[in-house]
């Protein structure tokens, strides 16, 4: 059932383990379901998949197909464009304060959740979200002002 519910978003075993762990934590606190536990677990798994689907991390868009197509065929111009784009992103990332840069890398590169970052850094989840929002805005402004990006992708 967990594999069916998780489908392409989450591994069924991981999903079930996470939901069981949360349920056991609730029971340890004297809360949680006292009857119809199967239904509770199924609903919890569905809710977890919905949360993952709505997460901004699941909405990440990769490099446009036209770049991958050209790079695979060894098109030097497309490879040069990709290298310039990567350099521009690296440059913008390095201009962020260390704490913001670390959060951007944790969330968007390592796919950690805001809650995980909050636990690691000792910040509240709201503070982590706010810092990420500011970092994304700063990176967007830096990239818009970078001629390597602006010339090609100006809207």
Labels describing this entry:
155 residues; mainly alpha
Please, could you describe this protein's structure?
This protein has 155 residues and is an all-alpha fold. It is 74% helix and 0% strand. It contains nine helices and no strands. Helix 5 packs across helix 8 and helix 6 packs across helix 8. The chain is elongated, with a radius of gyration of 21 Å. The termini are far apart.
Radius of gyration: 21 Å
Number of helices: 9
Question: What share of the residues does DSSP label as strand, in percent?
Answer: under 5%
Q: Ends: how far apart?
A: 45 Å
Structural class label: mainly alpha
Number of strands: 0
Helix % is over 70%
Q: How would you state the average pLDDT, rounded?
A: 82
Can you write the helix and strand succession as a string?
A: HHHHHHHHH
Net shape: elongated
Largest sheet: none
Ranges with pLDDT <50 over ≥5 residues?
A: none
